[in-house]
Predict the 3D structure of the following.
Amino acid sequence: MKRNWLIVPTLLITTTGTPVLAQGSAQNLANSGYHSGQSVVLGAKGATQTLSGLSAIPLKVLESAGTLSGAAGDRLATYAKGTNDEALEISEEVVSVGPAPDIAIEH
Amino acid sequence: MIRLPHRFPLRRLASLLLLLPLAAQAGSHAPANGGGFAPDRVAAFGKQVERYAASRRAQVFIIGRQGVPADQLPPGVELTHTGIGIYSSISSAQGKTLKGYAIHNLYQTHEGGDQSHLAMDYPIDFFSGVAELKAGILIPTPTLQAKLLASFEKGYHTRLHNSDYSLVSNPFTTRYQNCTEHTLDIIFASLYATDDPSRIKAHQKAYFTPQKIRFSSTERWFGPWVRQDFKIDDHPGPVHTTTFNAIEGFLEQYGLLQEAALLTPAPQVH
C-alpha cells in the first residue's frame, strides 16, 4: 500500500505540467545546457573552429573620464584608455572551456 | 549522475520519471547538439552578445538565458539561468590571447542534484543547449560595474558560494542558493563592500523584492520528495525566489541599471 502512495503523487506531478516541473525544468535545463554546451563545441569541429580557453583575466578599461580607474583595483590587467563611444575589442575567434570528461568520453 | 539514497528505490524511480522529459527537452544528444541549434549559430549568437556588450563598453554585465521553452516556464519567469560576464584577456591552449567576455556561473553539479559548483565558461558554452537563442542583458552603471569587478578581484564570488542548491532558494536566508541568488549576493556584496552573508541578507531583505512563484499544495508537499533540488523548507510561507526579472527591477529601482536588453539572433546577411 505504501508503494502506491509513493507512486501516485509522482505520476501526478510528472504528468500535469505543473509549475514545479516548469521551474524545475528551468533551472535543471540550465544545467543540462551546460553539459550540452560541451557537445556543441565537439560538434563544432567541422563548422566552427574553437580555441580552448585556459584562463581569463579581467581587463580594467580606463575611461578617459576616469570613471572606472582606481575603483576596480590595481592588480587587474589594464586594457586601454578610450572614450565612451568606442566599442571594446572582441576577438573573432570562438573560445570554449572544452568538453567535460563525461561528455568527451562519449565522442 | 543523480545521487539518491539506495534505500529509497521508489524515490529514485520518481526522480528519474521527472527527469525523463527534461532530458528529452535538453537535447543533449540531438544531432545538431545543444538544444537543436547548429554550432555555428550558437557561436554566432555568442559573438553577437559579446559585441553588443562591447558596444556599450560594458566591463561587467549580468547575463541570462532561457533553458526551456517559454510555455513551460512559470508565469513571469522569462530566463532560467543567470551569470556574470566580465571583459577579459583570454589565454587559449593554442597560444593565442583573445579579448572577449568570460562568464562566471554557479551550476548544479549534477542534473537534479542538490549541490552546486562555480564554473567559468564562454558564450558558446553558455548558450549551448538553450531552448531559444535569447539573451537577457543587464548592464549596471559604470560605478556598480567597477564595484563588481573589485568584488571578483577580492574573491567575494567564491566566498559567497553556498553549495547547497535549491531551484527556488529563499534569497533572505543562507540555507540554500542557486545561480540567480549567487548573482544577487555578488551584487549586494559589491554595493556594501562586504562578504559577510548576514549583512548581505539583511540588506537584501530591506531593499530587494523577490518574485513569487505559485505552487499548488500537492507540489509543495511532494515536490521536495521527488526532486533533490526542489527544497522549500527555507520558505516560511509562499515561495519567493530570485529571478533575472527581479534583479532587473531592483537595479532599475535604485538607479543602478545603465541598460537592459533582450537579444535574439540578428538576421543573417547573405
